[in-house]
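Supplementary notes for students who missed Thursday's class. We covered one full example, reproduced here. Read the sequence, then the structure, then the short commentary at the end.
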Amino acid sequence: MGGFGEIGGMLYVMTSNDDRHTSYRQVMWTLESEHTLDIHLNYRSENHLAAGNAEAWLRAGGWERNQTIRSAVTSGIPNGPYSGPVFSKRCPPGRTHLQGSQYWEGTYLVFVRMVVSPSPGAASPAPVE
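Structure (token representation):
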């Protein structure tokens, strides 16, 4: 789980690796929530990111490279073990579309944490623990 396992309230979204063939130009998954979410996309390697043409849709969608969360490490099949960059974004309630990974070695990992609205007098939103 890398650094994700050290963050309270973090959820892993179980997805199908068979979706790896979805074009980066198409929506691969849609997350829907009634709450604000911090969503983290963990690519399995820099090569997964580059070969799947992901940086363009990530940049256009306001995703930022997260330098503070340590990557999860996934199995060594076929060329691993894998560990790669994490991109994060705070998403308002509603739908968040995640584009395809378009890479034969696999999809990215998705981690989600709900953000609670601040209580009166609180400085900033606090994550659910």
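Commentary. The chain has one domain: 2-119. The chain has two helices and eight strands. If anything here is unclear, bring it to office hours.
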